[in-house]
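User: Please predict the structure of the protein below. I'd like the answer in structure-token form so I can feed it into my own downstream comparison script.

Assistant: Understood. Taking the following sequence of 93 residues as input:
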Amino acid sequence: MSHTAPTSCPSWCARTHGEVRGEDDTVHVSELAVAGNRLLRLCATIDPVTGEQDGPYILVGHQELTLTDADELVRALTTLVSQGRGEPVAAIQ
């Protein structure tokens, strides 16, 4: 079976398409990233006919975060890390 990436395949997609048939082939996933003991990756589905997209989401283990939710989490974690280090929080917001 040859590798045929859908024309709507995002630039970050690391999946080899064409190995499975049907809806499962519309799922796009990035390479794994590791943070501590957590596996993270981007995931989205794009309908090859209509172009309708669901995602991308950031998967943190089994939890799905929208990009907005992930961005808010990054800001909150950055604030907490700065507070823990005794750094001024206003400088990072």
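That's the full token string. The two ends are 50 Å apart (CA to CA).
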